[in-house]
Fold this sequence. Notes:
By secondary structure, the protein is mostly beta strands. Helices cover 13% and strands 34% of the residues.
Amino acid sequence: MQHQLDKTKNQRPSFVTIRNNATMNKTTTNSLNIKVGDHVFFRALGTTYKLLTESVAGSAGIVEHTLEAMSLGSPMHKHTREDEISFVLEGELTVIQDGQIQTATAGQCIAKPRNIFHTFWNATSQRIQFIEVIVPGEFQYYFAELEPYLKAGQPPNIEKMKEVREKYGLIVDPTSIEEIIIKFGLKPVS
């Protein structure tokens, strides 16, 4: 007998939002009024909110990221409060952390522990898609708070970006951007 959860080589896993009357049907309680399904985009990184941290008492948050072809996702950075797990849905995600380069393809994941500098990029010619599990989950709101300061066609608001990073305990090395782009042949940050 074949189990209905068996996967074939070409199927991608399906993520289902489970609604719970006690948590998911409430109106949002975060200060940004983010709801499941809301989407933000800046530079080459898209973020869709899948599971809000409030629905699990702050223990985790889940977002779905897209990253455009040949693009850097962020400068080198480290989280002081949370761990991240990236589960690739489509494409190939590349991460460097602790001096080691890792790649993951559809169905694989990469753990990014707190307090270790890392960054990620898409070295392929196609957009990639991956789930990011953030533990604990408050950091999931970083993307929505940062977006207004990285509007396309406008210079970034460095001071406001610094305030957002400090709020979330994120330490960033912006000087790493050019080196990574050149070393790995990525598109310049726009």
